[in-house]
């Protein structure tokens, strides 16, 4: 008999300590790369080992942009899964407003989530009208430049320590037949890279003015002109990066075919699966080595409402497990992300993860774009970035002008 999680043991609000029936709980997500599969496998293992229920994996190949419409369509179409992944932010807002998501407030209060979730903005992203509708599971930051030691050793150059050094080394890599910057063709990758350059090169004040205050004048000004000029450079560096998926681009860095990749810390999972060691085989530069900061994006799980008390009990058990100390350590060490709990020991984390933890401890953090802009505004920016990154004749000036127009009408 598997040990069942004793949730809300001392409360009379909900009793989920021992469900009467075992449940096969379908969990949908878009984690299919090697590192991602290893990480989500930790959740599945713990759920299967410590409860009477069974994790039914519902992985959807492709990015979140591919998976989310499928997930939303099932929920609104009356075929909900037991649990589903979304990013921190407003992606599930309309589903919550429509009353389609399970309210987790009683569970969160009984377990004291507010006491240990760090930063508290992660719970804010799960909260609507004072009620909590999701469990945050990690902090993923886009703010990283990953560098291949092999690529630079092959051309006889030291590994760059900041963006300017990376730019200066690019011609030598190109002459040696290597790709300076690996970028996959999925739209969110170029959008994310632009976001990293915005924070690193325009600075946090300018970024906040655009993303939080929605100041179109700043978006059209000199700080962002520098960002668009850098993005045009990066577009040239990535011109021969003919891969589709982000993890294929990461593999180019792993194998020394490319000098670097601007990608979130989930790339660490791929380096680990490949057996590479942080600080020896690859380097990581938070904030492009210019502005050491991390964004507090990441993932959360929502639990669609079902008319079945046994399934609901299993959903609550999974929610509790995902935010437990054991699961937070096991999952995030494999994923390369930071835990949402501020009360666990991560001395086993590698050098890059330790850098992220140190930055988090200093409070040098910003929200993720998904937490500031609506999905519609994000989609408009993504469409612009796709056109800009794929057309070398699309000038930085024209792209900036169109970007400022999007910010002027952002919601």
Commentary on this structure:
It is a single chain. The chain is an alpha/beta fold. It has two domains: 24-140 and 296-360, 3-Layer(aba) Sandwich (D-Maltodextrin-Binding Protein, domain 2), CATH 3.40.190.10; 144-295 and 365-408, Periplasmic binding protein-like II (D-Maltodextrin-Binding Protein, domain 2). It is built from 19 helices and 13 strands. It has helices at residues 34-50, 64-76, 93-97, 105-111, 113-116, 121-124, 149-154, 163-175, 187-202, 204-211, 216-219, 222-237, 246-254, 267-273, 309-322, 325-335, 351-362, 375-390, 396-408, and strands spanning 24-29, 54-59, 83-87, 127-128, 131-132, 134-136, 144-148, 179-181, 258-262, 282-286, 294-295, 299-302, 365-366. The strands form four sheets. A five-stranded mixed beta sheet has the order 2-1-3-12-6, with helices on both faces. It has a four-stranded mixed beta sheet with strand order 8-9-7-10. The longest helix is centred in the first third of the chain and has 17 residues, at 34-50. It starts with 23 loop residues before the first strand and ends with a helix. Residues 1-19 have low confidence and may be disordered.
Helices and strands in order, then pairings?
Layout: E1 24-29, H1 34-50, E2 54-59, H2 64-76, E3 83-87, H3 93-97, H4 105-111, H5 113-116, H6 121-124, E4 127-128, E5 131-132, E6 134-136, E7 144-148, H7 149-154, H8 163-175, E8 179-181, H9 187-202, H10 204-211, H11 216-219, H12 222-237, H13 246-254, E9 258-262, H14 267-273, E10 282-286, E11 294-295, E12 299-302, H15 309-322, H16 325-335, H17 351-362, E13 365-366, H18 375-390, H19 396-408
Parallel strand pairs: 1-2, 1-3, 8-9, 11-13
Antiparallel strand pairs: 3-12, 4-5, 6-12, 7-9, 7-10
Helix pairs in contact: 1-14, 1-16, 9-10, 9-12, 9-18, 12-19, 18-19
């Amino acid at each position: 008999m598997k040990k069942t999680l004793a949730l809300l043991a001392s409360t009379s609000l909900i009793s989920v300590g021992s469900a009467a029936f075992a449940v096969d709980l379908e969990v949908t997500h878009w984690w299919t790369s090697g590192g991602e599969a290893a990480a989500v496998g930790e959740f599945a293992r713990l759920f299967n080992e410590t409860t009477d229920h069974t994790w039914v994996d519902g992985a959807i190949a492709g990015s979140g942009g591919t998976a989310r419409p499928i997930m939303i369509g099932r929920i609104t179409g009356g075929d909900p899964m037991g649990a589903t992944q979304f990013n921190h932010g407003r992606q599930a807002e309309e589903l919550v407003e429509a009353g389609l998501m399970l309210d987790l407030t009683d569970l969160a209060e009984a377990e004291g989530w507010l006491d240990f979730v760090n930063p508290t903005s992660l719970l804010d992203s799960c909260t609507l009208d004072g009620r909590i509708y999701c469990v945050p599971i990690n902090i993923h930051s886009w703010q990283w430049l990953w560098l291949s030691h092999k690529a630079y050793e092959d051309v006889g150059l030291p590994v760059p320590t900041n963006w300017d050094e990376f730019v200066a080394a690019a011609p030598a890599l190109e002459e040696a037949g290597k790709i300076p910057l690996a970028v996959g063709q999925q739209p969110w990758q170029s959008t994310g890279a632009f976001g990293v350059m915005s924070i690193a090169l325009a600075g946090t004040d300018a970024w906040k003015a655009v993303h939080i205050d929605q100041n179109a004048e700043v978006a059209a000004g000199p700080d962002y002109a520098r960002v668009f000029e850098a993005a045009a450079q990066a577009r040239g560096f990535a011109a021969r990066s003919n891969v589709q998926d982000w993890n294929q681009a990461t593999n180019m860095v792993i194998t020394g075919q490319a000098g670097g990749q601007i990608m979130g810390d989930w790339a660490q999972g791929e380096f680990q699966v490949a057996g590479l060691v942080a600080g020896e085989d690859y380097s990581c530069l938070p904030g492009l080595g210019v502005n050491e900061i991390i964004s507090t994006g990441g993932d959360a799980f929502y639990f669609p409402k079902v008319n079945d008390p046994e399934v609901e009990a299993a959903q609550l058990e999974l929610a509790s497990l995902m935010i437990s100390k054991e699961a937070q350590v096991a999952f995030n060490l494999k994923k390369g992300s930071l835990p949402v709990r501020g009360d666990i020991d991560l001395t086993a984390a590698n050098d890059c993860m330790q850098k992220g933890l140190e930055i988090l401890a200093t409070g040098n953090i910003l929200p993720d774009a998904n937490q500031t802009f609506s999905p519609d505004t994000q989609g408009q920016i993504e469409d612009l970035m796709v056109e800009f990154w794929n057309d070398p004749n699309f000038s930085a000036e024209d792209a900036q002008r169109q970007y400022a127009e999007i910010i002027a009408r952002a919601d």
